[in-house]
Amino acid sequence: MIKRAGHITCISPAIKLVLTASLVASVFLSGCSFQQYVAKPIDPLTTLTKFEQKDPASEQFHQYLLSNGYTADRLPVKQWGVDELTYCALFFHPSLDVARAQLRAASFAEVSAAEKTTPTLSSKIARSNDPDPAKKPFAFGLSIDIPIETANKREIRIENAKHLSQVAKLEMAQTAWQLRSNIAQSLAEYQFNQQQIQLLTKEEIRRQEIVAIYQKRVNLGAASNIELSTANLQLQLAISSLNTKKQDSALLLSKLASNAGLPLSKIEKMALMASAKNSDNEPVNINTVALLNRLDIRIALERYAAAEAKLKLEIAKQYPDIVISPGYAFEFGDNVWSLGLSGLMTLLNKNKIGIAEATQLREVEAAQFDGLQTKIIAETNIANAELTQAKQSLTNKKNLLAQQQTYTQRMIHKFTAGEIDRLELAFVKLEEITAEKNVAEADFQLTSALNQLENTLQKPLTEIGLENGGEK
Fold this sequence. Notes:
Layout: E1 2-4, E2 7-9, H1 13-31, H2 44-52, H3 59-67, H4 82-92, H5 94-114, E3 120-127, E4 138-148, H6 153-220, H7 225-260, H8 264-267, H9 286-293, H10 295-316, E5 322-331, E6 334-343, H11 352-416, H12 422-457
Antiparallel strand pairs: 1-2, 3-4, 4-5, 5-6
Helix pairs in contact: 4-6, 5-6, 6-7, 6-10, 6-12, 9-11, 10-11, 11-12
């Protein structure tokens, strides 16, 4: 009852109903655990410190290697090749953190799509100034809207979300593959740089020897200053090239560290293993391998499936959803019970525009898939042709080196017999160094071609019979 102006009046049943509903709603809401906003600012210094602490010798990374098939007797890692550095990238590189965050977001979207539409509760109160004593001055109402989806719209939304979640998974795998590809190429570039430094160092020694011989001959009047100047110029060019390659070494090592997601100081302490790729086996049908294995092909298929799910959803939207609204109202002394039924008037236009748009989107995805297939076939053929050309080039350069080495040995015997002088022998050895440089460059081109083919197929060559190992 309500005490007002010295009178005690009874509360009507309608008021009791509204008050009871309000009390239940308030208790329900108070019992819910609401999440609070928590600020999470980014501190650049903390991020830098965290990056500097990344260590491939850490126990956490060792546990990661063990969980991925590494045996305990191979730890700590003594030789760092493409596979080991790829594991570093998968564990330390921040780009995978971004991909993982995107995957989690897609997973939550999948959960959100599975949620059913929540009923809504509404109430109202009104007061009338009608002086008629036969009427009660107050009116109260309470109703609940219960939505009912038709035509399996919820299941179609779940299907669409699953396809998009699979796209996020494949995109994360594509990010991981790109890291591996970058590591393979940057490691090959660094190893080639080290070979160049070794050969240029040998060339510098030979050219210093040639300059010294010319200097002696000029002093004795047996050679001209022009010959000495030419030898000095060639020496300076060799020294300049050597210095450039040494400077490139630090840059290439930094690039490798960046691709592995590690500080440069950690990479500098690693014993890097030279790549030992070779391809002497006859290739399988690489176009088939590419079309069946390429991650972007699989992503395109999932996007097409998502477009089909969207089209199915738009077709399902032709059928209106229904909202059932039972309610009770106390209207100025009358008790009124009601049952409402509502729905969108989609039967009038049958969602023609939405269906047409979804149909065109599906056609776009289909056209993009066809274009992607054609592009991949072309890239695969080009990569295979470049590999064939690189193999032939390396074979030719090795044959020339072998011929030059045979010629050098013959000249050494002549020098021992006194048939040629030291200057002529020095030039012969310099020619052999040039042939070695040509072989090293051809070998690097072959490694790059193998990496490119592997990247085009997006599958390690050892897994498809294109590589059998070989000596560098």
